[in-house]
Amino acid sequence: MADDKNYPATGTLAPVSPQQTLLVGVLPYGEGEPTNVLVKDGVIAAIGPDVQLDDDAKNGQEIELTGQVLLPGLVDIHVHLREPGREDTETIATGSAAAAVGGFTAVFTMANTKPVMDDPSIAESVWFKGQATGLCDVHPIGSISKDLDGKTLTEFGMMARSEAKVRMFSDDGKCVNDPQLMRRALEYAKGLDVMLAQHCEEERLTDGAVAHEGAVAARLGLRGWPRAAEESIVVRDALLARDYGGRMHICHASTEGTVSLVKWAKNEGIPLTAEVTPHHLILTDERLETYDGVNRVNPPLREHRDIMALRQGLLDGTIDCVATDHAPHSSEEKCCEFDNARPGMLGLETSLAVIVDTFVKPGLADWRFVAKVMSERPAELVRLPGHGRPIAVGEPANLTAVDTNKQWTSYGKDTQSKAENDPYEGMTFSSRVTTTLLRGRVTLHNGVVQK
Ligand code: DOR
Ligand code: ZN
pTM (2 decimals)? Predict the structure, then answer.
């Protein structure tokens, strides 16, 4: 579990709710008989079928959740909340609301904001805005290079020691192409025990590329992004992590070859980890036939065999976790020629449903797996205290409840996000988050955000 030795508390944590809440009839991890969970002073106070609110509880509330699955609050280590700079497409407040709808209690927001999150003051302002919003812990990710220039390292130590307690660094959106810079970053990260996350894209192989290099792109006349552009950086950075130490994490793994390389690196004992997005687990480049800009994303949607390898990699633990890469864009940036559309897709509100329908409903995995890949493992990777914890008495009440028989259809216009670039537009799912609690505070109740 998350080790909090080096990171006691992250800044000022949102006040816990003094209110008692009784979650009635839930199935922790989808197991056993329906039971009640009493939440008091921000922690789980009791679990059992006969547990009730205390007699003297003031304003205690009961939430009827009979038969719903209870999970630890979800953790997403890769989102883009666009604040500061592009508040027209997402803010910390709207992104936090989307997170609560998706069942998340902690998200990590990428550094490619305007200005770039490359110093402690920007990181602190993001952290404190998230705490003031109070719907989800919003952790800033520091950039690896100043202004994402790929040349000058930022002050990891100052950001790590700031009130924001930055614990992850990334130039995501861009690859750290210079191997010498990455080597220095790893050496520096090792000393601070922070994680580096690489957007693997050998830019000399992706000049002008907008789609996966394959038969579909060739037919549609779109410039292709070869698998080797991703895999060559994965292997280079694995070798750097082998020789210089430091924890290296692969963002949005998208190819069959990446899964094999991560497996090889782990077998060698290299401190390399990886995430996969929901969209790379279920969507292929066949979607590009319509030239709809909503399907443009970096790395691009690939082929069936990549999807199958990524699913297998997640199931067997080669791929550590799911991360959404929630990337809001305005309709002007998306509803245009495919070549000009900005890459990125919304993901926070749909990710749990995608994972459940891909793995749990077909019987490939159980709810413990969902808890592992969407909460426990991501919290562990970034050494995050208080999240990804067991559902047990005395643990922080970061929780989410899922109705597993609630057919619903996703529409971009219905999201809490400011943007509407939902790749699952019109798609129907079987399960939906109904309730989310952040340190005892109900942030989502019956699907309604509690602002
Ligand atoms: O599709 C993407 N969008 N991939 C990235 O790496 C960056 C992101 C963004 O910032 O929109
Ligand atoms: Zn990203």
Answer: 0.97
**C-alpha of residue 250 to centroid of ligand 1, in Å:** 14
**Which mutation among 250, 298, 346 tests ligand 1's pocket best, with the greatest number of atoms within 8 A of CB?**
298
Ligand nearest, relative to CA of residue 344:
1
Q: What is the pLDDT of residues 216-236, one digit of tens each?
A: 999 999 999 999 999 999 999
Q: Residue 378: CB within 6 Å of ligand 1?
A: no
For the cut 90, the answer to whether the pLDDT of residue 4 exceeds it is: no
Cβ–Cβ under 8 Å, residues 123 and 183: no
Give me ligand 1 centre to Cα 91, in Å.
16
pLDDT tens for 290-305 read 999 999 999 999 999 9
Q: Which amino acid belongs to residue 434? A: T
Task: Indicate if ligand 1 lies below 6 Å from the C-beta of 172.
Answer: yes
Single-letter residue type at 165: K
Q: Residues 29, 391, 168, 373: what is their CA dihedral angle, to the nearest 10 degrees?
A: -10
Catalytic center residues:
325
Question: What band does 17 get if pLDDT is binned at 50, 70 and 90?
Answer: confident
Closest approach atom of ligand 1 to CA 344: 1
Q: What is the pLDDT of residue 139?
A: 98
Over residues 191-206, the mean pLDDT reads 98
Q: For ligand 1, is residue 297 a contact (CB within 6 Å)?
A: yes
Distance from residue 200's CA to the centre of ligand 2 (Å): 11
Q: What's the gap in Å between 118 CA and the centre of ligand 1?
A: 18
